[in-house]
């Protein structure tokens, strides 16, 4: 991927994204977690944060994605952001992920969906 911001793969970081998913969507991720060798991919640019506490502050979210990046094309937007405290990272289209675990946090009343991101080259 050709980017003016970053020409190297991002390695070994954890990213977070709050989202509002319905029961059917959560069930799909739960099913995918039983097939750890199957991969899906991000179809669009996806914004997330390197700061879990910040990602958990988004209102009306039923899910927190916890994304463990093995290696993938991402872009750190903090240096050019008006809100650098958001620690925003942009995942580029085509980055693949596998669903490792889906669990429900009773205290936070959210599903925690753990993904492993891995750039796949065909």
TrEMBL record:
EC supergroup of this enzyme: transferase
InterPro entries recorded: ART (IPR000768)
UniProt-recorded Gene Ontology molecular function terms: NAD+-protein-arginine ADP-ribosyltransferase activity; nucleotidyltransferase activity
Keyword rRNA processing attached: no
Presence of keyword Nucleotidyltransferase: yes
Catalytic activity: L-arginyl-[protein] + NAD(+) = N(omega)-(ADP-D-ribosyl)-L-arginyl-[protein] + nicotinamide + H(+)
Pfam family, one: ART
UniProt keyword terms in alphabetical order: Glycosyltransferase, NAD, NADP, Nucleotidyltransferase, Transferase
Enzyme Commission (EC) number: 2.4.2.31
Superkingdom assignment: Eukaryota
Family to which the UniProt record says this protein belongs: Belongs to the Arg-specific ADP-ribosyltransferase family.
Name of the protein this chain belongs to: NAD(P)(+)--arginine ADP-ribosyltransferase
Origin species: Adineta ricciae
């Amino acid at each position: 991927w050709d980017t003016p911001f970053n020409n190297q793969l991002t390695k070994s970081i954890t990213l977070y994204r709050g989202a509002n998913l319905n029961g059917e969507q959560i069930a799909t991720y739960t099913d995918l977690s039983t097939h750890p060798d199957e991969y899906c991919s991000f179809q669009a640019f996806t914004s997330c944060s390197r700061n879990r506490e910040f990602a958990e502050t988004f209102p009306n979210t039923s899910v927190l994605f916890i994304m463990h990046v093995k290696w993938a094309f991402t872009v750190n937007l903090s240096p050019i952001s008006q809100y650098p405290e958001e620690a925003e990272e942009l995942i580029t289209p085509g980055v693949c992920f596998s669903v490792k675990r889906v669990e429900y946090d009773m205290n936070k009343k959210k599903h925690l969906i753990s993904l492993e991101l891995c750039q796949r080259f065909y």
